[in-house]
Amino acid sequence: MAQRIELFYVAHARAGDKGNDQTMCVVPYRSEDYDLLARALTADAVKSHFGSLVEGEVTRFDVPNLSAFNFVMRDALQGGVNDSLAIDTHGKSRSSYLLSMLIDVPDDHPGAARRSTVMPARPH
Amino acid sequence: MNEHQRGNQSIRVGGGSAFFNDRLDAAVELVEKGDIDVLMLETLAERTLTLLHVAKRNGGKGYWEQFADRLDVLLPVLVRHKTRLVTNVGGADPVAAAAMVASIARKHGAKLKIATVTGDNVSHVVRELDPVLLETGQPLSRLGISTVSTNVYLGADEIAEAYAAGADIILTGRVTDSALALGPIMATLGWKHDDLQAMACGVLAGHLLECGGQATGGYFAEPGFKEVPDLDRIGFPIAQVFQDRSIRVSKPLGSGGRIDRHTITEQILYEMHDPGQYLTPDVTLDVTSLHLIESAPDEVTITGVVGKPAPETLKVLIGVDSGILAEIEISYMGINCEARARLAADTVRKRVARIPEMASLEVRIDLIGISSLWPGPVNDTCREVRLRVASRVPTRTIADQLVTEVESLYVNGPAGGGGVRIGVRPTNRTYTAFIPRSLTQPRWAFAES
Fold first, then answer.
1. Among candidates B222, B272, B430 on the partner chain, residue whose Cβ is nearest the Cβ of A23
2. Is B262 an interface residue toward A (CB < 8 Å)?
3. ipTM above 0.95, yes or no
4. Global model pTM greater than 0.90
5. List of domains in chain A
6. What is the least distance, in Å, from the CA of A110 to any CA of chain B?
7. Of A46, B160, B249, B426, which cross-links B183 as Cys (Cβ 3.0–4.6 Å)?
8. What is the domain range of residue B339?
9. Which pLDDT value is given to residue B3?
10. Do B345 and B275 sit in the same domain of this protein?
11. Is residue B240 one of the residues assigned to a domain?
């Protein structure tokens, strides 16, 4: 049995910027979730989660030795610090948006239990 | 001096700032309690250097003047602990910055050898080469605007030489951030450029230090999920680099913050593209074979660093003026507040479209609390919303006109708008080009004392 929960309960992330490109690393709280995330966080899935925010290609680099993934999203920042009129020109807050992505985890995953303690049950 | 006890077996480098206005008390704590040999201060974000060039052009100093007040606090502590300092605070004029540092040293009765690294200003080379810009795919000359600053990212060689020659304080302009650590590491451990693994080890140490507290629990806390003790007094990072190409990352004993596999991993990958190829002027760093061990509480030991040859070209940042940014905000509260903010936005858009010199402007409107960061619909009941209007405009007159269009919502807009704030400021932007290494002439010199 599986259920859908936000990535927030399974991993943490940090965003950075280089020009108009966004970089973002994702690190599971538990190393044993690495394969689960490798299946869920495909470059396509991440690009589709960001929708129109990311105009260019999304590339995922796997860094299993650090139990981490590194994403590079091209043309993602409406021009970045140079040109963007957004309030967060660096896109620093976007790591939190990635963590809102829904992923499938087994029913007995500790992230699911954790989620149920802080959020009311939600139909899906 | 601690350096003598460690000899050439290891060196302890402290990362004392991530940007020019970072916490000073944490840098002082590093020197007082961190048992460090050298403090590095990173102060030049991509556009900061362009701002300093603008200041210099307008008759001001080419370096960040407020650094004098900070150094007044820091310098006596550095002297007391025989700790050296390497920083890019020299900005657009390291030689002038050295004169300022020398006067502060005199004031404190300290005899210090101050060195400068110059040669990052490559405006003449770039003017002649007219390189293709990464952002536009066109030669620089096609921009048709004059450049404010043209600086190449230098490597660590000159810093290493000045450090080996006994400089107590080294002031640079634009160098790659990690070079501020790599230079002292090369000088102390006797590492040379042909040893790629050694270079990569020094670059990784610098990369971990260049963002200060971001390696030690800063930018990490998630209340209830990943806690960081004493966020209000995070200890800044120390990298002890050993001859065997290992790095031990720690922070001052008793300081706040957190160091473990998670904080260090986030910082290793911070602003990296391909983790197998992190390009710097000194070496190409590969972090895909690193091994992290939580070797003690708040301490991580890193081994397995890999280095590949450095790129043939060096990166240049070209700064130009980019108009005036006008930002104006107003708040609405209570029942139906989002609808009133949307009506206000619609009113501003319609009026701006009717003014000929503004009709073609790109104007961005955000509802802060609803849509300024989050792209989709928000379900929570809205209790307040802040409307933000932003546009990059060519002249101050047009900026003032846009301000009027939002500020007049006070009396002509929807009910209950309040708290207008206005920001209007000149902006600059950077373009990126690459030039052959052979065309740069980096050099270092002791400052006149």
1. B272
2. yes
3. no
4. yes
5. 2-79+93-107 (3.30.70)
6. 12
7. B160
8. 321-430
9. 58
10. no
11. yes
Q: How far apart are CA B201 and CA B384, in angstroms?
A: 50
The rounded distance, in Å, linking the Cα atoms of A43 and A98 is: 12
Render pLDDT for A19-71 as a digit per residue (tens, 0 to 9): 899 999 999 999 999 999 999 999 999 999 999 999 999 999 999 999 999 99
Closest Cα in chain A to B264 = A66
| Co-location of B293 and B351 in the same domain | no
B272 in the same domain as B174: yes
Task: Residue A49: list chain B partners with CB under 8 A.
Answer: none
State whether B285 and B335 are in the same domain: no
Residue B374: pLDDT over 90: no
CA distance B291 to chain A (A): 7
Question: What token pair was written down for B186?
Answer: 């090369």
Burial of B446: CB neighbours in 10 Å, binned 0-12, 13-18, 19+: middle
For chain A, what is the radius of gyration of the CA atoms?
15
CA distance B65 to A12: 38
pLDDT digits (tens, 9 = 90+) for B94-119: 999 999 999 999 999 999 999 999 99
Read off the pLDDT of residues B234-288 as tens digits, 9 standing for 90 and up: 999 999 999 999 999 999 999 999 999 999 999 999 999 999 999 999 999 999 9
Cβ–Cβ of B289/A65 closer than 8 Å? yes
Residues of A in contact with B266 (CB under 8 A): 12, 14, 25, 27
Q: For chain B, how many structural domains are there in total?
A: 2
CATH number at residue B374: 3.30.70.100
Whether residue B77 is found in the same domain as residue B163: yes
Contacts of B302 (CB under 8 A, 6+ apart): B204, B246, B247, B248, B249, B264, B290, B291, B292, B293
